[in-house]
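Exercise: predict the structure of this protein bound to flavin-adenine dinucleotide.
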Amino acid sequence: MFLRLLSDIQWRAAHPRWRRMTGSQRSTSTTAEPHPVSLPAQAQVVICGGGIMGTSVAYHLSKMGLKDIVLLEQGRLAAGTTRFCAGIVSTARPVSVELKMAHYSNKLYQQLQQETGVQTGYMKTGSISLAQTQDRLISLKRIASSLNVMGIPCEIISPKEVLKLHPLINIHDLVGAMYVPEDALVSSANVSLALATAASRNGVQIHERTCVSHVTIQKGRVTGVETDRGRIQCDYFVNCAGQWAYELGHSGEEPVHIPLHACEHFYLLTHPLKDPLSSSLPTIVDPDGRIYIRNWQGGILSGGFEKNPKPLFTEGRNQLEIQNLQEDWDHFGPLLGALLRRMPGLEALQIMQLVNCPESFTPDMRCIMGESPTARGYFVLAGMNSGGISYGGGAGKYLAEWIVNGYPSENVWPLDLKRFGTLQSSRTFLRHRVMEVMPLMCDLKVPRWDFQTGRQLRTSPLYDRLDAQGARWMEKHGFERVKYFVPPGSDLLDLDHSKTFYKPDWFDIVGSEVKCCKEAVSVIDMSSFTKFEISSTGDQALESLQYLCSNDLDVPVGHVVHTGMLNEKGGYENDCSIARLSKRSFFMISPTDQQVHCWTWLKNHLPDDSNLVLEDVTWKYTALNLIGPRAVDVLSELSYAPMTAEHFPSLFCKEMSVGYANGIRVMSITHTGEPGFVLYIPIEYALHVYNEVMNMGQKYGIRNAGYYALRSLRIEKFFAFWGQDLDAFTTPMECGREFQVKLDKGLEFLGQEALWEQKQNGVYKRFTMFILEDHDTDLDLWPWWGEPIFRNGRYVGKTTSSAYSYTLERHVCLGFVHHFDEKTGEELVVTTDFINQGEYEIDIAGQRFQAKAKLYPFSSLFTQRRRKDEVELSGYQRE
Ligand SMILES: Cc1cc2nc3c(=O)[nH]c(=O)nc-3n(C[C@H](O)[C@H](O)[C@H](O)COP(=O)(O)OP(=O)(O)OC[C@H]3O[C@@H](n4cnc5c(N)ncnc54)[C@H](O)[C@@H]3O)c2cc1C
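Solution:
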């Protein structure tokens, strides 16, 4: 039947293009002033792009009382990708902040018609996500748990219940589904117009047919925009140019890297069914079939995420307005097949059109927002990975808050532009990566999956050596890092396909690496860590660091200090170790993905003083972490220097020779809480030092280890990790790190006031460790992160990381506990008693497991004796 329709040339000829077919979805009116109205000479904020993102930012900025906002659109409002959107507002998102954005958008769109008088087509239809496999069902159950604790109604339903909600769905291959009754449909262009209407009423000037050619930046600050109709001076520029954002970012003299790339994205429209589909039928998402289906004017709209996407505009191409691209029925064929399997009753249905529109995708499937690391006042909101309508409201709100208040009201680090560097902006990288990303929108993502494209970009000089010894790799910020080493003779193929929510097949391998770290000595290549040097001719380096860090940096030369770099609210902007190399120079080690963010934070806060030098030396050093009780023996033998605690105490740094190589920065810290050292080796010596260490280590039982072992060790020691447990909304007081805060250091430091207040009044969340009690490691689902925590049956927070502890032989979860008033829901202070007196459960995909709560520190848990301060100081570091 479909073949007949597809080959029906008359049908094609008889049906005009999308622009004429879908009047209800496209821009029919405009709130913009008629062109030409001259542009203002200056504005406080200029927004480029009149799609859902630009109009949402304009709406929220104006709601927040900002005046003097100009929105420029090269074509007509909402005539970019927003016009072609399928209009599904879906909250079922795995990333917590994206979920919150979508939830907010849904609530906003619901009342927008009433607020503005513009018909938005909002219809609460609900959505059903189908599971064809048990693993898919587990992933849906995990999302359902997250939605439920946020108060968003959501249930896991049986195939029969699916049929009751949507009688046309074929359920024979389903094992279950997730139903979100409040998900909605909208006319996306009209939502965008409604936002523009409200913004315009609030004083935002909107100019259509006005193209931004480039943004002018002077001394690292936005000064204005050049357009085809003249220049506007401004303090803030917001790039909401959708798929054009990358090119616009590169158009000025100072490039702003916005790593996104367009792919063709298709959906099919049909004529109405004989018995037209009810407009209230829920949207169907069938990720295993790679398709979504919604009702559309009595017929259906169905699109999807094919396995072999078609990236486009790699060479750059800036059309004025997006037109429907070429139909490609061969390409759409597999999705069509999936649609027919899911709704066999459609076979006799007439196709109206195959819509094909570019949408932009990002290297990690998360959207991009925030301020440019290179140009202050240059903000970006783009790269929506086909979720732009769902995110639009919330994303616009967070970005507006960022501009007005200096920070958004939520932790948006997972979406922050500064998670990327220039390395993700190569056109080839982006083209290859988005070809992987688009299918991943539907692929089942088991814990710790890795991207396969764009790999081997940044590597340690030891890469080949480690690879030859069985290293299995993961990637962070473009850097290859070892997960674990497959011992000779193991089934390598199996281990490469370790896809499960249960006990993974690397369990024993990692266990033996952990054992070696505890009983002998292991080596982990940690070269990816960010490394900066800060030096000055006078005391500027010390003075600046004293202001930026909560700990006291005025320590004797050769000492290492673990410290947070906090924002005004006391939250962690960075969590780092700083070695004092000399009176006036410091060596800072930060997490891998802090390279851009931390650099920007320092640049923005260090005084403009030519006598103060900040240098990124990440690439100059290979870092080897020697972990375990025999590390001291290996290093003493290699350096002919006494390395015992009397000569080389904990938290000490010294340049020494190792083997033939000189100038190795040795620090007595590990990243696991075990005894040991980190060697920062100038890269040309890396292979030599590694060989020496491995040769000498033979007699002490040395072996290679990877990050999974490190992770298990750091989690069982309750060490928090920036980017996972710690963020800009978490203070040292909330995670048991008071010992890193020197409120009395006699100098003012950033965040000090907020910490004083917390010290006096208490904290509203506490970092807590949970040891699972009735959990069977072999048979039960594993916790990974993001699992809801229940205290006395009530939701109190979420886990931030977890691992199997080979020492405790139990699973350990770390997470934050809040205290909500039972009647009002108001947040209350979390006391030690509150933590200790509760009965806890961790929800893993809907099943609750009992857990024992522990507060930091807890060294009695471990049989291995260690002084408390050593536990605290020697290895809490992140990664
Ligand atoms: C086929 C398809 C179906 C989709 N379905 C859904 C869905 O069901 N649910 C969902 O949540 N998302 C969906 N999406 C994704 C969603 O439509 C997009 O993420 C969203 O519309 C992107 O909005 P935007 O404002 O970033 O981009 P756009 O809407 O493209 O807006 C960018 C605007 O910037 C303007 N511009 C660019 N450069 C300049 C310049 N130099 N000067 C002035 N103006 C400029 C452009 O003209 C354009 O109007 C779908 C996408 C596609 C393609």
